[in-house]
Design brief:
The complex is a heterodimer of chains A (about 475) and B (about 180).
Chain A: H1 2-20, H2 29-46, E1 56-57, E2 62-63, H3 66-89, H4 97-116, H5 120-138, H6 145-176, H7 181-188, H8 195-212, H9 221-227, H10 230-255, H11 257-262, H12 264-282, H13 288-308, H14 312-339, H15 354-357, H16 359-373, H17 379-393, H18 400-427, H19 442-460, H20 462-473
Antiparallel strand pairs in A: 1-2
Chain B: H1 2-7, H2 12-33, H3 41-61, H4 65-89, H5 93-97, H6 102-125, H7 140-148, H8 152-173
Classes of the chains: A mainly alpha (about 475), B mainly alpha (about 180).
């Protein structure tokens, strides 16, 4: 709990700091937030009270186990990288820079609660805290029409999915009388044939499917990714998606494990279609953020492989893949954020001649694309390898898993085309309108190097991170 | 007073009050959407207030006093004032002249009919001899204890959520940001 309280206090302090900071210094409040979050992250590894593995609190609503700690560190790193990006982005926000930082921190607090949610009440409240904060973060550039359009779309579809979620929770509560995940697990077996209970669980999955942008609830992702301010898009792609996944894992494997065991085919189908949809729709895209939006749908599909495998190895592969995805996506969006500073669109052509304008940015973007495509030796390759391995392990029980693995491989091959389109735009495009070198500030270089180091570390030395992921996933093995 | 008590046994009073409030709710509800005397949206909104207040009476009969109070304060008070503001701010001259289209009427009747059918089917399926034990749900003291005891964590997180929403509304609607 200390961690959550500290993060919320940081959000309030950032908002209050707006009163005393002179206008030209406001953007540097972001670095203060980065320093504070880095301190909290450091303390969480020190194990002094912040992230000790110590059971539950608030009548079992709040759980602090390996999985929660894994995701809390994940969210902290994500928020740190996004805040670096937000400082660079601050000159494009008309006003309220401090509020932008503090809203990012509040969204982070919602994610931290989501990581520890062990009760449907907490699940709903934390998801709403994240989503409502993102409505505002998405429409933050209110002078730009696309930003407002993205905000409205996200608001309407988000409200629809929330209503599904809360209706599902009401049905589950109405049939079983339980809200706590562990208590529900104890009685869920009795309700396996109760249709109302099953519809309730299905509706909850709809609500969570929206958060992770899985098919058929992915429709919002490309528009919102394109219109939102770039740091928001990055946080949406990493933080919001991961929050959806931690809640999905908790619901499927802690709350209703007996139901999940029957729904393997449903998960296989959703995962397969999500992979194909994301990759095929990304092919004709010329807008960078929209392309990454479709790519994030495809990655939701890859991550669902780990859920569909219904095994501890699948879950740990999912966690490992998410960690690689964090560094890769943050790297890509940081580059986009820097390159499009003086442009009013995010087309692929903006990258033209980037290798002459800034070799570091060009290299980072190339590495990010290579990692997203899943080529060794970067993080994305090993993650995809683990996910496919966990799916194939289950193949003996259900031939559907072989089809799923084949679909995922086909998706990977399709994705090569558009990821290499980005790399080609960097190095081999003819018309480079602007060849002025891009100057990078010190802190953003640090952020870029963190992303690069993360991608290489996870790809070359996977054992340490994999141990952490396996340890975190072991909470479901009980 | 004595004669009234003799006329109606005490146990029957809540039942009669139920019919009174239910009738009032339905009557005002009809006046909201199909008032034969006035097509003014403000009149409709005022009838909606009355419908909401009669519904609060139904909650009182169910011993849900807190819900009744919230119904009056939040819906009849705050939300309806908001409705009236919006109606008065927007130009609603067209609405008064609008004719009821046959397609909409048909769709409306169809949906009401379906819901009514489901209700009747549900009522038939229920055993009327079952006597549910009277519980004191909706008691404010109990609700307070639950909110600040068992559910204190979600309750506090909601307060952060409201703060975020407030900041967002100010940011998105302020005239000029510095």
């Amino acid at each position: 709990m200390t961690l959550e309280v500290c993060v919320m206090a940081l959000g309030v302090v950032l908002m209050l700091a707006d009163f005393w900071l002179p206008a030209d210094r406001k953007k540097f409040a972001g670095y203060a937030a980065v320093a504070a979050l880095a301190g909290l992250l450091f303390l969480s590894f020190g194990g002094c009270g912040c992230c000790s593995l110590s059971g539950t609190a608030f009548n079992g609503m709040f759980v602090e186990d390996g999985l929660a700690v894994f995701f809390k560190r994940f969210f902290l790193i994500a928020a740190i990288l996004v805040l670096f990006m937000a400082v660079e982005f601050s000159d494009r926000i008309a006003g309220g820079v401090s509020e932008y930082y503090s809203l990012i921190v509040f969204a982070l607090s919602g994610m931290l609660f989501a990581a520890s949610a062990n009760d449907f009440t907490m699940l709903f409240v934390s998801i709403e805290l994240i989503t409502i904060t993102f409505y505002i973060l998405t429409s933050f550039q209110r002078g730009r029409l696309v930003s407002l359009e993205a905000g409205v779309k996200y608001l309407i579809l988000g409200a629809l999915s929330s209503s599904f979620l809360v209706f599902g929770i009401a049905l589950v509560w109405g049939t079983t009388g339980k809200l706590n995940f562990n208590e529900l697990a104890a009685v869920a077996a009795q309700f396996e044939s109760n249709k109302i209970f099953l519809i309730g669980v299905l509706f909850i999955l709809v609500g969570l499917g929206f958060k992770i942008a899985a098919f058929p609830f992915q429709i919002w992702a490309p528009d919102v990714y394109q219109g939102a301010p770039t740091p928001t898009t990055a946080f949406l792609a990493v933080g919001s998606k991961a929050a959806g996944f931690v809640l999905l894992l908790r619901v499927l494997f802690t709350a209703v494990p007996t139901v999940t065991a029957h729904w393997a085919n449903l998960l296989i189908v959703i995962s397969g279609i999500t992979i194909l949809y994301g990759n095929l729709c990304a092919l004709p895209q010329r807008n960078l953020k929209r392309l990454l939006g479709y790519s994030s749908i495809a990655h939701a599909g890859y991550l669902l492989l780990g859920v569909a495998a219904l095994s501890t190895s699948g879950q740990s592969a999912l966690l490992y893949y998410l960690a690689g995805y964090l560094f890769t996506v943050c790297a890509a969006f940081t580059v986009i954020c820097l390159v499009t500073r003086h442009l009013d669109n995010d087309d692929l052509s903006a990258l033209a001649g980037l290798n002459r304008r800034s070799p570091l940015l060009a290299a980072t973007m190339t590495l990010a694309m290579v990692s997203l495509a899943g080529i060794p030796p970067l993080a994305g390759f090993f993650g995809k390898f683990l996910l496919l391995k966990s799916v194939l392990e289950q193949g003996a029980a259900n031939p559907g898993y072989y089809c799923l693995a084949f679909t995922a491989l086909a998706g990977v091959v399709i994705s090569f085309y558009y990821y290499f389109g980005v790399i080609r735009a960097i190095y081999w495009s003819k018309a480079a309108a602007d060849v002025s070198p891009i100057s990078l500030s010190g802190p953003i270089k640090v952020a870029l190097w963190i992303c690069i180091a993360g991608m290489f570390w996870l790809g070359l030395f996977p054992s340490k991170a994999l141990n952490l992921a396996t340890e975190a996933a072991s909470v479901f093995a009980k | 007073m004595d004669s009234l008590q003799n006329l109606i046994p005490e146990t029957m009073l809540p039942d009669m009050m139920f019919y009174v409030f239910a009738g009032l709710t339905l009557g005002f509800g009809i006046l909201v959407v199909a008032n034969p005397f006035s097509r003014n949206p403000v009149t409709s909104a005022m009838f909606l207030v009355l419908a909401v207040i009669s519904m609060a009476g139904l909650f009182v009969l169910l011993h849900a006093f807190f819900l009744a109070a919230v119904q009056v304060i939040v819906y009849a008070g705050a939300v309806m004032v908001l409705f009236l503001f919006v109606i008065m701010l927007l130009d609603i001259k067209d609405e008064q002249k609008r004719k009821i289209k046959k397609g909409f009427l048909l769709a409306g009747l169809l949906s009401v009919g379906t819901i009514a059918g489901l209700f009747i089917k549900g009522l038939h399926a229920t055993r009327l001899d079952a006597h549910p034990s009277p519980t004191t749900e909706g008691d404010t003291a109990l609700l307070g204890k639950l909110l600040f005891g068992q559910y204190v964590l979600p309750f506090e997180v909601v307060s952060v959520l409201l703060l975020v929403a407030m900041v967002g509304v100010i940011l998105l609607s302020k005239k000029d940001l510095k």
